[in-house]
Design a protein that fits this description.
By secondary structure, this protein is an alpha/beta fold. 40% of the residues lie in helices and 12% in strands.
Length: 786
């Protein structure tokens, strides 16, 4: 291996050091930001106290990254903090506040505007949320029209630059790039026919130039602009056109003098394969380009014939060889070999991550209860930062300099492959015996007739599953976990809670009830704790949106179900009422999407194993007298590959896994599913292919945008587009929900239409929940009686 020269850069620009990352978890090692922000929302923390807490968290993060080995100089430390969401941060930095929030913006309080956009209030619906590319992270969708105001607002960026400088750290501000920002935006309701947010690219680029100028004047050396739109075939324009838009935007931004009129620019292309565009990106007038080399590849021909090196003359290539999406240790020897090939081709190479580390937990060392053998196979954010440093040293000094680290990783990978439970013959034999008949139910019309005996009215009302997880529930769960109460006492508490929720739903007047899921800490972790092949963490928190964090479970081995998981609770709830109670399960795709899944076999194979475990659970629920079973798949769209040529295969196995889980149910059993925060128009065929009897879908924030694709497709089964946005604390009135029901009813026949919230109610309080559901039932009855 040839040790490369130190990366070069234009005169007056300090090059990036050979080790960097694209971002770091921002919620705090113990979710400090969540607690501070929620205390602020409740009025228990002042604005100044919230800002102080955020400053302390940012300072701790910078210090930790330097301690882990990132250089304090040269812009290696990314400034990737956010109070809520990085796309929302860009909205504020651009001054792109929708006109409907103008009354709040006029008050001049950036934080008030920010949280109003994120959460709404009684007078304002919040911005829509949807999934960030193919991750479980949700972003706030910008609303842009031809008249949306644009004005550079660099205050937050500049404040963080000053904080870092006071620590003696030269951090690198991070912003969503202008092309990705506009392609993720939606036209505002007043935008007019034919308008697309990308139409305002030149104006937005001019504002970005102002932001960069302000940062340069403050002494910022580097800025990172994230352009994951470069790797996606799922946006409103083809990938080639995205590249052309990026070339157009950065021709303008890069024309300013680096180091004087703007900081040096790092363009990133995370989450997928940018190999086809890499040479053209390297030729842009910027100082560095990042490529995801975990989910993407190198352009081999261009690397071999020297054209890639010529394109990158004077430009650094950040090689994203450390996986920022999963928690398994990287094969460091293979990663080093990849980086060395780039360097040996004459390209100034920087070791980096495939994407921001916001998608992984902080530190494996925090997991004191995790099996030590399993822990030795893992790398959370801190371990990934250390791995970046190891590879940078190996690249600079040769593999021999880091042989100890390379050998240790190889030993861990070999131990993982040989460990008991990773492969279980019985599980594999059962999966291998699956036939097409195992994925098929009776004809839809026959099922509809058989299910008439369940006795639900037209425009049936229900909820998605969970009810609020109160302080009392969390305290009881914690006390049981600490051994302060025994199993009998805990079970008694849960039965009382279930009985209370059943009574409440009957009082409100809902038609199909749920048991409320008081026993579940999380819709995936609950099952992970009861299935073989999984492990769970203590502190492995990952941000989902805003202050909402989850602890993804670790799916490390072959999956099977040792015993029933939900049957006793569902059967008990059904014994309390004459109305039907839904059995509630999380679907195989969502269990995979919201876990850290083994990477040593195809996802499709793992999905089959999970589906078979759920099939057994459905059999037992039906045997116990449950006539409606809901198998939630909110992540179905989330895992859709960004590359178009891989999408059909994904939809085939993901739909097949759902059908394998549910097709054992007899015709008189009604199978429900739930999907949320997805662009359903792209996968309507797959949603139909699930063959669920009833599907509930997020729709409130978008004001029923989904019903037109459903109507155009001729969707014939039950559908429940949500009329109550549960991700906001506001209580929608009966009139508001009635309007949404009528919009849906105009395209969906009444016998198909169900009425429900957008999602589960776990994160809401009881006062707002009862008020909102009471209004929901009132609205449904008004439309039913019209």
């Amino acid at each position: 291996m040839t040790a490369p020269a130190h990366p070069t850069a234009p005169a007056g620009v300090t090059p990036l050091p050979q080790a960097t990352i694209l971002g770091y978890p921002r919620i705090g090692r113990r979710r400090e930001l969540k607690r501070a922000v929620e205390s602020f929302w409740k009025g228990n923390l002042s604005k100044d106290e919230l800002l102080a807490a955020a400053r302390e968290l940012r300072a701790t993060t910078r210090s930790r990254l330097v301690e882990l080995g990132l250089p304090a100089a040269g812009g290696a430390v990314p400034e990737s903090f956010s109070f809520y969401d990085q796309v929302l941060d860009a909205t504020l930095a651009l001054g792109a506040i929708p006109q409907r929030f103008a009354d709040i913006a006029e008050q001049g309080d950036d934080l008030a505007s920010y949280f109003a956009l994120a959460r709404g209030d009684e007078a304002h619906q919040p911005l829509e949320m949807t999934k960030w590319f193919d991750t479980n992270y949700h972003y706030s969708v910008p609303e842009i029209s031809a008249t949306t105001p644009l004005a550079a607002n660099p205050a937050a960026l500049l404040a963080q630059h000053v904080e870092a400088a006071e620590q003696g750290i030269e951090s690198r501000p991070v912003l969503v790039g202008p092309v990705t920002y506009l392609l993720l935006a939606k036209p505002a309701h007043d935008a007019g026919e034919g308008f697309a947010p990308i139409d305002r690219l030149d104006e937005v680029v001019a504002v970005y130039a102002e932001l960069l100028r302000a940062l340069a004047e403050a002494g910022t050396a580097w800025v990172q602009l994230d352009e994951p739109a470069l790797v996606s075939d799922s946006l409103s324009v083809p990938r080639e056109e995205v590249l052309q838009l990026v070339e157009r935007a950065y021709a303008v931004l890069g024309a300013a003098e680096a180091g004087a009129e703007r900081p040096a620019i790092l363009i990133t292309a995370p989450y997928g394969d940018s190999s086809a565009a890499l040479a053209r990106l390297g030729a842009l007038p910027v100082e560095a380009v990042q490529a995801d080399l975990v989910r993407g590849t190198l352009p081999e021909a261009a690397l071999a014939d020297g054209s890639l090196a010529r394109a990158f003359a004077g430009t650094q290539l950040v090689a994203g060889v450390i996986d920022g999406r999963n928690i398994w240790r990287t094969d460091l020897r293979a990663a080093l070999a990849t980086a060395a090939r780039i360097a040996d081709a004459g390209i100034a190479t920087v070791i980096g991550t495939s994407n921001s580390l916001q998608h992984v937990p902080h530190d494996v060392a925090d997991e004191t209860q995790l099996d030590a053998r399993l822990a030795s196979w893992l790398a959370f954010a801190d371990q990934k930062v250390e791995a970046v440093g190891v590879l940078a040293r190996g690249l600079a000094e040769g593999a021999a300099a880091v042989e100890t680290e390379l050998a240790a990783t190889e030993a861990a990978l070999a131990d993982r492959a040989a460990a008991p439970g990773v492969r279980v013959d019985g599980v594999r034999s059962r999966a291998a015996a699956v036939t097409a008949a195992d994925r098929s139910r009776a004809d839809e019309a026959d099922r509809r007739a058989a299910q008439e005996g369940i006795g639900v009215p037209e425009l049936a009302t229900t909820t998605i599953g969970s009810f609020p997880q109160t302080t009392e529930i969390r305290k009881a769960r914690a006390a049981f976990g600490r051994g302060e109460i025994d199993q009998a006492a805990y079970d008694g508490f849960l039965r009382e809670e279930i009985a209370r929720v059943i009574r409440l739903q009957e009082e409100i007047g809902l038609d199909v009830l749920v048991h409320g899921e008081a026993e579940r800490n999380d819709m995936v972790q609950y099952f992970a704790e009861l299935l073989d092949g999984f492990a769970v963490t203590e502190h492995g928190w990952v941000q989902s949106y805003g202050t909402r964090a989850t602890r993804p479970s670790i799916l490390w081995g072959d999956v099977s179900r040792p015993a029933p998981m939900t049957v006793a609770w569902s059967a008990y709830a059904q014994s309390l009422t004459e109305k039907p109670v839904k059995g509630m399960l999380t679907g195989p795709v969502t269990i995979l999407a919201w876990s850290f899944v083994r990477d040593d076999q195809p996802l499709a194979d793992t999905a089959e194993q999970v589906a078979l475990a759920l099939r057994d659970e459905i059999d037992d629920l039906v045997e116990a007298g449950i006539k409606i079973v809901q198998v939630d798949e909110p992540a179905l769209r989330e895992l859709l590959p960004l590359d178009a040529d891989r999408q059909a295969a994904y939809l085939d196995w993901s739909v097949g896994a759902f059908r394998l889980a549910t097709s054992g149910a007899a015709s008189d059993v009604q199978i429900h599913t739930h999907l949320c925060y997805s662009e359903f128009g792209e996968i309507i065929g797959a949603v139909d292919g699930l063959d669920a009897d009833v599907t509930s879908i997020e729709a409130a924030r978008s004001r029923m945008d989904v019903v037109d694709p459903l109507g155009d497709h001729g969707y014939s089964r039950g559908i429940g587009p949500g009329v109550y946005d549960i991700h906001s604390p506001r209580v929608p009135s009966a009139a508001e929900q009635e309007e949404l029901i009528r919009i849906a009813a105009a395209r969906i026949p009444g016998q198909q239409l169900w009425v429900n919230p957008d999602c589960g109610l776990k994160t809401r309080g009881y006062d707002e929940t009862v008020a909102s559901l009471t209004n929901l039932v009132q609205a449904a009855r008004a439309v039913r009686g019209a």
